[in-house]
Amino acid sequence: MPVSAWHRYTIKEGSKGPIEADFSFVRATAKRGRRPGHASWVVFRRGLEPESEIKYYVSNAPADCRHRTLVRLSGSRWPVETALQEGQSELGMDHYETRTWRGWHHQMTLTFLAHHFLLRLRLRLKKSLRHSRYSKRAS
After folding, report:
1. Number of neighbouring beta carbons within 10 Å of residue 98
2. N or C terminus of the chain with fewer C-beta within 10 Å?
3. What span, in angstroms and rounded, lies between the C-alpha atoms of 26 and 42?
4. Phi/psi of residue 6, nearest 5 degrees
5. Minimum mean pLDDT range among 2-6, 64-68, 73-77, 127-131
6. How does pLDDT run across 69-111, given as a tens digit for each residue?
7. The pLDDT value given to residue 137
8. Using CA of residue 17, residue 21, residue 27, residue 32, what is the dihedral sign?
9. 137 vs 129, 130, 134, CA distance in Å?
10. How far apart are CA 134 and CA 118, in angstroms?
11. Pairing of strands 54-59, 35-46
C-alpha cells in the first residue's frame, strides 16, 4: 500500500485516552470458482509504532459505507469476543445438544438473554454498592 493510502483514525476512547491506529481501505470482489462473488471491503489496520503488525478485516458493508463507520466497528470486536467467552465459560453456551437449527437458535437466544440479565444485575449491584458507601460516609 502506498503511504498516501493510510489515514489515522480514532477507534474509540480508552481508559487512558483515545485509541488510534492507521487504516487503509480497499474494495474487493470475492472469487467463487471462475465467477465473481460478492463485493466487500478489506480494512487494513496497523498500530502507530514503527514496524507494527498489519491486521485486516473483511466486511460485507455496502460500497457507500463511510470509512469512519468501518473503523468504529473494527473496535467492537473485543466486547463481542468477551461476551462469547463469558457465555461459554459461565453460562454453558458451548454445552448444547440440539439436533436442529431452530433448537440451536433457541439455546443461543436463551444464553444471550441470561448473559444480558447477569450483566445488568452486575452493573446494578455495582451502583448500589457505590451508593451505599457514600451514604455511610455521610452519616
Report:
1. 12
2. C
3. 5
4. -95, 135
5. 127-131
6. 999 888 887 788 888 888 888 888 888 888 899 998 998 899 8
7. 56
8. negative
9. 13, 11, 5
10. 24
11. antiparallel
Q: Which residue has the cell 454498592?
A: 129
Residue-wise pLDDT tens digits, 20-71: 999 999 999 988 888 888 899 999 999 998 888 999 999 999 999 999 999 9
What crossing angle do the helices spanning 101-138 and 77-91 adopt, rounded to 10°?
100
| Contact criterion met (CB below 8 Å) for 87 and 107 | no
Measured between alpha carbons, how far is 139 from 136 in angstroms, rounded to an integer?
5
At residue 25, the 3 state secondary structure works out as strand
CA nearest to 26, candidates 55, 51, 47, 1:
1
In angstroms, rounded to a whole number, what is the distance separating the alpha carbons of residues 53 and 22? 11
Residue 7, pLDDT > 90, answer yes
Backbone angles phi, psi at 57, to 5 degrees: -135, 150
Q: What's this model's pTM, rounded to 2 decimal places?
A: 0.64
Do the Cβ atoms of 21 and 47 come closer than 8 Å? Answer: yes
Reduced to 3 states (helix: H, G, I; strand: E, B; else coil), residue 70 is helix
